[in-house]
Amino acid sequence: MKKFLFLTVLSFFLISTTYAKHQYEEYSFGAFWNYKVKGSGSDNYYQFQSDLIQDKDVIKEIKNKKKTGLVSYLLFEDDKIKIDEHDLPWYIQNNGGLLPSHSVGKSLVSYVTGYAICEGYIDNVDVKLDDWSVLKGTLYEGQKLIDLLNMKAGDQKIIGEKNYNSDNRIKDGKRWRDNVNVLPLLQFMKSDILQNTKKGASIYNYNALATNIIMNYTIFKAGDDYQKILDKVFKEDAKIKNSVYFHKTLRSPPSNQDKGEYGRYSFYADRYDYLRIAKAVMDHWNNDTCVGKYLKTVYERRINKNKKNYKGDRSGQFDVAMYTKKYGGQFHFDIIGLSKRKILGMSGFGGQNIIIDFEKKRIIVVNSRDRHYNWKKIVLKKLKQK
Asked: What is the DSSP letter of 153?
């Protein structure tokens, strides 16, 4: 067991600090406990129709995956899959095709929170987080849920991309236990730095701690019904075929693994189930359901990222997070050149992207090991097409 934990921690450290020319990282699905939603089986899952075309740009990027990192690409429009290309690594094939979402999972945490609001477990996005002892004495106590959803909780003194090089490490700490994704939330909330840091200015500060607070607050409010919410989101409404998972933090003891402070946003699903989930998001919006109204609320309450430039990352690579002006409810909005269109983006480390164009009813799902594919050519160009 000790050896397992050591290897897990080591792999996670390598994951979190890999910012070299290529961003390949270890595949860590089996290293953590999880919340599992069982698939719908052979009969009840949503079955896509296809009208496939051969897209030379996408095919080229996948054939050159050792350089680009691209392993899967799906484009859905006119209620059909139009582009379907993939070349999955062996370790993903051998694990049921489960692909890591990375920070796409942040958006899915918000999506689940929308369900919790619609089911009456949480009043609304303006509720104050003053009824949960886990946050007592921290700068998050008493803040509105919407401010955490929008990454403007004033926590830039302790974590986040505003002042540090990472979204998940307390003050950019190098120790594995500084990573908010590998220890229970309560441990961080009780730490000296969280207990002694005052709230800063309410500005956009992208970080993982805010998301984990949202997730665990939802778990706290839902209590024993949290699994029911997950089942409704993914099994009943999205009609997933295979099982999907949210991770729990590393040290979740088996006797307490269902306690609220162990939730973590990392999510795993196969490529078609990601598309099923995205289609459910699109249908909620376009059918103006309660969850659709939640999505429209966070869209209307979105805030400026106040970015100085849109030149991509340190290697000059792009994705939807780097090419959008605004952020709302854990989603990226207002793509450069397309800000008049209601397009929702989800983005994760290494180039994971889910992009939903509500007006065109178009969805693009990208899974990759590395963000060196030509995002502007195979994603942005497709969004601009009539």
From this structure: S
Q: Report the domain count for the chain.
A: 1
pLDDT digits over 226-244, tens only? Answer: 999 999 999 999 999 999 9
Taking the model in full, what pTM does it have?
0.92
Give the pLDDT confidence of 319-335 residue by residue, as tens digits: 999 999 999 999 999 99
The HSE-up count of residue 44 (CA atoms within 13 Å, CB side) is 10
Contact at 8 Å (CB) between 268 and 29?
Answer: yes
Rounded to 5°, angle at Cα 202 from 196 and 203: 115
Task: Please say whether the beta carbons of 25 and 220 come within 8 A.
Answer: no
Task: Quick: pLDDT tens for 87-102.
Answer: 999 999 999 999 999 9
CB 141 within 8 A of CB 129: yes
CATH, residue 54: 3.40.710.10
User: Domain of 206?
Assistant: 2-384
Q: How would DSSP label each residue in 294-352?
A: HHHHHHHT-EE---S----STTS---TTTTEEEEETTEEEEETT-TTS-EEEEEETTTE
User: Residue 292 is inside which H or E element, if any?
Assistant: helix 290-300
CA 70 to CA 231: how far, in whole Å?
30
**For 194, what's the count of Cα atoms within 13 Å in the CB-facing half-sphere?**
21
Token pair, residue 325, equals 């002006």
Among residues 101, 125, 93, 77, the alpha carbon closest in space to that of 385 is found at 77
Find, among 292, 85, 324, the residue nearest to 204 by Cα.
324
Count of all residues that appear for the chain in the document: 386
d(CA 341, CA 335): 8
Residue 18, judged by CB atoms within 10 A of its CB (0-12, 13-18, 19+), counts as middle
Mean predicted confidence (pLDDT) in 3-11: 39
103 — alpha (psi -120 to 50), left (phi > 0) or beta? alpha
One DSSP character per residue, 177-220 reads: GGBTTSS-HHHHHTSHHHHH-----------HHHHHHHHHHHHH
